[in-house]
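Let us practice reading a record.
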Amino acid sequence: MKALSRFWLVLPFTFALATEASAQQAGLVNVDLRNAKVLSGIANHLNIAVSNVPITVQAPISVAATVCQVTVAVLANAINRGGASCYAQSTSAALNKIVQNVINIQHQ
């Protein structure tokens, strides 16, 4: 009986983690980089001119949630309704890498 009680206590947490993991794999989010602080931060990190930073990039939902300061669930709901976009409020190493990859593709 004690083991069964523990199972029912753990089950909601397990479901929440599984839902979060599946939402993170749901798709890409269009991230708007027009925030001056974000543009400047990315340009400084990549050692390029601000004018060379793309205005938008597509990022995995977990990266977008972090830099746009919204939850994965909010973005996942938007993706399920047809697409998600958000405005970056900060930058991150993952976002910088995505921007670098976009720049590299554009210059090939």
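A brief commentary: Residues 2-106 form one domain.
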